[in-house]
Amino acid sequence: MRELILCKYGEIVLKGLNRGTFESELMRNVRRRLKPLGNISLRSSQSTLYVEPLNDNIDMDEVMERLKKVYGITKLSRAVGVEKDVKRIFEVAYERFGDALKNAKTFKVAAKRSDKKFYLTSPELAAQIGGMLLEKFPHLKVDLFEPEITIVCEIRDEGAFVHDIAVDGAGGIPVGTSGQALLLLSGGIDSPVAGCMMAKRGVVISAIHFEAPPYTSERALMKVERLAEKMSEYCGRICFYTVPFTKIQEEIRNNCPEDYFTLIMRRLMMEIAQRIAEKNHLQALITGESLGQVASQTMAAMVTTDAVCRIPVFRPCIGLDKKEIIDISYKLGTFEISIEPYEDCCTVFTPKHPRTKPTLGDVEAAQAKFDFEQLISEAVENTRVKTIKAY
Length: 391
Ligand code: ATP
Ligand code: MG
Prior knowledge:
The protein has helices spanning about 20-35, 60-65, 85-100, 120-135, 190-200, 220-235, 245-255, 260-280, 300-305, 320-330, 335-340, 360-365, 375-380; strands at about 5-10, 40-45, 50-55, 75-80, 105-115, 140, 150-155, 160-165, 165-170, 180-185, 205-210, 240-245, 285, 315, 385-390. With about 400 residues, the protein is α/β, with parallel strands linked by helices. The chain folds into 2 domains: about 1-170, VC0802-like (2-Layer Sandwich); about 180-390, HUPs (Rossmann fold). Strands 1, 2, 3, 4, 5, 6, 7, 8 and 9 form a 9-stranded mixed sheet that branches. The longest helix is centred in the C-terminal third of the chain and has 19 residues, at about 260-280. Adenosine-5'-triphosphate binds near residues 184, 189, 208, 210 and 344.
């Protein structure tokens, strides 16, 4: 009995004429993630992706774990395929669930029929299989509401499937169906969450990180790269840009009023990020900002940073509490990395009393004390790029 995994699509089903594109992006993403695990066949039919190993030594637990991180899949279940014959369906259910049923007190058979030509209705099929199992295990009771074990029998066009109860997938729509954007990625908790939230809505993510050696260390950069690698389990391959930011930060410190350090720094980060974005045909920026979280994330502060932006800036965490962001980060698996204590360039020259209600005019006047253009072009020119992906 070789197992396969059935993956149900979510919103792809609603996409009408674009559905073909959505399905092929999803298949491509799944194929990339599963390739290192061996020879696996993928087939799409009736809003379901069939993931079937072609040899016996494939680690199906790992296949399942990887599929749970692919955006565009809402439900997954491990199943065994069998002929559309009640006796055979029973035999497979018995073989697959027999041991568990021996030790259980309650169970239920749920039946679904997407092949409407099958000669039994769903309730009839459930009753027959349930009855046959009860004959084998007379100690069992049927419990339709809180059964210890649920056995799902599904009659589809291509055959019958006996499977465990479905588990939740990552949801969303496939990466690659919503354009490309550049994520400002720090080593913190919020920005990896922001990147994955946008990937979940189909965006291909590139990442840009600002480093300020010797104020920030090589190990701090490696931590951010590990974050990107973790993210790529969900987002796919990530183009990762590292910007040398030290000179700019030093000139801010040497020339501008201290209260405005952070705001000017953020405006210059946005300027550099969008130049890299424009050069590489990325259509928008993404940050991990959340309204009111720190001085540079008040509405007045964001007005002054947005004033330098020529392309859209997406801030998916904007309305989330820190606790909610942490919950997502924990689920993604980025939290453990994010909380490792390394310095970030944002914390290098922090003002004692940052402005929380700056006006655009004040910030522009503060920034005008030095001409940053030359340093901005140098930073863009000296930006390094590499590809990061999870294996
Ligand atoms: P995070 O957890 O993402 O670090 P934070 O609350 O610490 O968020 P800030 O340090 O104020 O926020 O930064 C706000 C946003 O600016 C970050 O979410 C990120 O998008 C971007 N950012 C901050 N530092 C860097 C950096 N060194 N490189 C790239 N982007 C950065
Ligand atoms: Mg930060």
